[in-house]
Amino acid sequence: MQTEAIRITRHGGPEVMEMVSQNAPDPAEGEVVIEQKAIGLNFIDIYFRTGLYKHPLPHGLGFEAAGRVAAVGSGVTHLKAGDRVAYAQSPLGAYAGARTMPAWQVVKLPRSVDFESAAAMMLKGLTVQYLFRQTYRLQGGETILFHAAAGGVGLIACQWARALGVRLIGTASSPEKAELAKRHGAWQVIDYSRDDIAKKVLELTDGRKVPVVYDGVGKSTWLASLDCLQPRGLMVSFGNASGPVEGVNLGILAAKGSLYLTRPSITDYTPTRQKLGAAAKDLFDLVSKGKIRMEIGQRFALRDAGKAHEALASRQTTGATVLLPE
Question: What are the φ/ψ torsions at residue 122 (nearest 5 degrees)?
Fold first, then answer.
C-alpha cells in the first residue's frame, strides 16, 4: 500500500522533516497494516528529531496513532480487517497515512472512543496509567505534585487523580493554563511564572510536602521537585521537556531526605500484549465512564508536522495535538 509519510535523514529543527511517498508492506506473520485516521504528537517525537534520543538515520517519527486494520498477517488472532484500533508504542514511523507494524502492540478501540481521541490519548493515557497505577500506586487521599498539568499528559493526570480521590497539585506557566488544569480536576495549580514551586507546595501541604512528584519537564524543575518531597519520597522523572537532567550528584538524594528516584519508560511497563491490554482497559474504562475526556487543543495536517513541533516546543499548545493524514 502506497502512502505518504514524514521521514528525516539528519537531525535538527522542524525543517529536517520531509514528506515522502513510501510503501506499507503486506503484513508478515504477526503483523497488521493500519490505515491511519489520526496521529498523536508527543515531546518524544522532538527528542528523536533533534537526536537527543538516538536512532539510526534515516527514520520516521511518531509512536502513536489510531485507524482501521486494512490487512492481517498469519498468526494474528486478536485483530481482523476492519477493526478500529490504536497503539501507543511502536517502531518509529507513526507519522504516515498507513503503516505495517507488530500486531501485539495494537489494541481494539471500544465504540465510545473516536479516532482523534484515541490518537491523542494512547501514549499520554498509558503514561498516566503506569505512573499512577504501577510506578507509585496511588490509593486515594494522597496529595501529589504533577508538573505541566495543562499539557496533554497533565490534563489526563488531573482527571485520573480526581477519579482516584487524589489531590493533585499541578504546575503551569500562565493563569490561563492553571485554570485549564483546575477545570480538569487539579486540586491546586501553581503558576511558576509568579510563584516559587517548593514554597507554594510547602504552604499548600501545611509543611508536610508530598510523597511523590511526577516530573516530565526535566532540567528546569529538577531541584524544585526534590525540594517538594517528603523524606523517603519518590521522584518520578519521566520526561525532558526543558532538557535532560544531567550531572546528578546522588548525594543530593540523601541530603534532601533519603529520596528515591526512578526514570521510567512505557516500554518496560507494557512489554507484552497482555500487559498492554490490561493497561489500555484501565484507561478505556475511565473514558467510557466519562471520568476522562480528551482535550484536543490543536489539529494539524500531517504535512504541517513541522508547525506542530514548533508549537509544542514553544509551549503554545494546550491539551493534546493530533496530526491528520490527508
Answer: -60, -60
pLDDT score, position 320: 85
Taking CA atoms, 323 is separated from 36, 305, 306, 308, in Å, by 10, 7, 11, 8
Q: pTM here?
A: 0.89
In the block, residue with C-alpha cell 528525516: 8
Rg from Cα positions in the chain: 20
Residue ranges of the chain whose pLDDT lies below 50: none
pLDDT recorded at residue 318: 78
How many CA atoms are closer than 13 Å to the CA of 230, on its beta-carbon side?
13
Q: What pLDDT shows up at residue 245?
A: 85
- Asked whether 260 and 235 are in contact (CB, 8 A), the reply is yes
Domains of the chain, CATH where assigned: 2-121+271-324 (3.90.180.10), 140-263 (3.40.50.720)
Kindly list the strands in the beta sheet with 59-60, ordered across the sheet, starting from the edge strand earlier in the chain.
18-23, 2-8, 59-60
Q: Which residues contact 215 (CB under 8 A, 6 or more apart)?
A: 147, 221, 222, 225, 235, 236, 237, 238, 239
